[in-house]
Amino acid sequence: MRKKIIAANWKMNMTAAEAASFMEDLELELKNFDGAEVVIVPPFTVLPRLSEIISEIPGVTLGAQNMWHETSGAFTGEISAGMLREFFTRYVVLGHSERRTIFGETDELVNKKVKAALAASLRPILCVGETLEERDAGRVHEVLSRQLKGSLAGLDTDQMLDTVIAYEPVWAIGTGRTATPEQAQEAHAFIRKTIGEIFDPATAAKVRIQYGGSVKPDNAKELLHQPDIDGALVGGASLDPRGFAKIVKAAARS
Ligand code: PGA
What's the total number of domains in the chain? Predict the structure, then answer.
């Protein structure tokens, strides 16, 4: 049984004070709820404050939006897995399409980060997904296969099981244009099949695959109802505690 995992990717939003007030509201909304694992993924600057708050809330863990793969040294502006662990961070989002397009991250670099995260006992949330041009050109499977093979290269089975995949079609991120449940399910099934080929089908059956891209309270349930969709990576709609709580609860009912 794959427990659903709903993550709030706050991107470059929220001060520490705003985050604390968000958590107060979210805690009230999710009182006595344990139907899904919740991961809050704030900016780095908010991690210290949230690590204190979140340690008190059952079922909620902390994630980071990025990291560098070296352990320390002359990498101005970067942060290591060990530094994230200092604040009880459990997950780290890697290879987000904004990192790939704005900051030029390649599958090779993402693979280094995935390995460094796992070596530091951080669980990667590895993002994959095609652009609109790639979808229109019928290249969805080719792109997903390349991203998965490149980013997961060299992992063993246990490491794969500690990794979450997020399927995020680039054309659906922040655009209000969600993949239909059928489109998302088709891509998720392909991702699971590909993981089965890289590792083995039994491993693939246990890996959690989130959908991301304009997930909202009113479309979450239908998406989360699909057989291969095991959660959501939520951007814009995760900034409102009530709306985000609705998405989390939709996971339980599906
Ligand atoms: P969105 O972002 O929900 O605002 O589309 C999702 C993401 O980028 O993870």
Answer: 1
**Annotated catalytic residue, options 37, 98, 105, 168:** 168
pLDDT at 11: 98
pLDDT reading at 235 higher than 90: yes
pLDDT: is 233 or 1 the higher one? 233
- Euclidean distance between CA atoms 26 and 16, whole angstroms: 15
- φ/ψ of 173, rounded to 5, equals -85, 120
SS percent in the chain: helix, strand, coil, step 5: 50, 15, 35
| Residues 100-142 pLDDT 10s | 999 999 999 999 999 999 999 999 999 999 999 999 999 999 9
- 123-128 vs 209-212, strand pairing mode: unpaired
pLDDT attached to residue 254: 54
8 A C-beta contact, residue 215 and residue 247: yes
CATH, residue 153: 3.20.20.70
Segments forming the whole domain that contains residue 26: 5-253
Residue of 12, 40, 100, 168 best suited for mutating to test ligand 1, as the one with most atoms within 8 Å of CB: 168
**HSE-CB for 224 with a 13 A CA cutoff:** 27
Query: Which of 13, 170, 214, 219 to mutate to test ligand 1, by most ligand atoms within 8 A of the CB atom?
Result: 214
DSSP-derived secondary structure for 190-253 = HHHHHHHHHS-HHHHHH--EEEESS--HHHHHHHHTSTT--EEEESGGGGSHHHHHHHHHHHHH
